[in-house]
Amino acid sequence: MKFVLLTGMSGAGKSTALKMMEDIGFYCVDNLPIPLIEKFVELSEMQSSELSKVAVGIDIRSGRALTELHDVLDRLEADGRSCEILFLDAEDSVLVKRYKETRRNHPLAAGERVDKGIILERERMGFLKKRANYIIDTSRLLTRELKAEICKIFVENQDFKNLFITILSFGFKYGIPADSDLVFDVRFLPNPYYVEGLRTKSGNDKEIQEYVLQFQEAHEFLDKLEDMVTFLIPNYITEGKNQLVIAIGCTGGKHRSVTLANQLYKRLSARKEFGLKIEHRDIEKDAKRR
Fold first, then answer.
1. How many angstroms separate the CA atoms of 58 and 32, rounded?
2. Phi, psi of 209 (to 5 degrees)
3. Is the dihedral of CA 225, 227, 232, 237 positive or negative?
4. Where are the domains of the chain?
5. At what angle do helices 216-238 and 206-213 cross, to 10 degrees?
6. Measured in Å, how far apart are the chain's first and last C-alpha atoms?
7. Phi, psi for residue 269 in degrees, rounded to 5
8. Predicted confidence band at 20 (pLDDT cuts at 50, 70, 90)?
9. Out of 73-77, 245-249, 269-273, which region has the weakest mean confidence (pLDDT)?
């Protein structure tokens, strides 16, 4: 029997993920009392049981009993019962925003600000994150992208490395993305904005792509960037990094940055050791301003 413990930070998407696990064939139980976990696993493994895949949701609502979970997992492991742990996480600023949007109280805030509860929760949940087999940072994930990551792990059985990369194009005149890990400025390339007939098009259009990529400097930049990112990825994975945002910027975030972000995405998309997505933050802003 496959037994998965689904846990993580409040607001990171555990309830949504549990429904997704159910959709792919798992028998799911949320917030099972920790003293009952061992008995539940034992009953699930009985020959009369038809359960082959089980997921149990555990979070900070377990209260003081959460401290017992470490010993429970040790005993399951000692008995030869394998337990895989999926830990959902998100940046503190994202968690605060989600709580404000839903107008819910953090279970540990106790009348204080939400961020106080998040800090305390990170302390109490830290041991589970350290033991986790899989860590998914949902800070920038859409629902369908979270489902794709879960399917990679539990349906496609891919070698999951806990790193999700976002390639993000942007315009410097709208500000550098606050969550960027690596920022690259491609304003050294000629700007299609000043070429007749190209201003209204974007880096998603063939005409802009041909214009930008006609310059040897664009290809040299992509070669060097791909080489550096390829070097950094295994080191980030080793250090336990879960989310990497590579931001590529030009003046307006519509032409050069979009073209080169798309090209980098194509170059990295064949690799399977990390999740990958692309976003164009400012591609429509000039049109809206007009």
1. 7
2. -60, -45
3. positive
4. 2-154, 164-289
5. 90
6. 59
7. -65, -20
8. very high
9. 269-273
In this prediction, residues 276-282 reach a mean pLDDT of: 93
Q: Quick one: tokens of 113?
A: 């600000």
Among the listed ranges 97-106, 202-211, 248-257, which one has the minimum average pLDDT value? 97-106
> pLDDT tens-digit profile of 109-134?
777 778 888 998 999 999 999 999 99
Structural tokens at position 95: 């968690």
Place of tokens 């050791």: 273
- Residue with token string 């310059």: 215
Q: Which residues of 86-101 are buried (b: 16+ CB within 10 A; e: fewer)?
A: bbbbbbeebbbebbee
Distances (CA, A) of 61 to 66, 134, 137: 8, 21, 21
Residue 51 has pLDDT above 90, yes or no: no
| Amino acid present at 123 | E
User: Quick one: 2-154 is in which CATH superfamily?
Assistant: P-loop containing nucleotide triphosphate hydrolases (3.40.50.300)
Question: For the residues 11-33, what does the mean pLDDT come to?
Answer: 92
The amino acid at residue 156 is E
Q: Which amino acid is at 264?
A: L
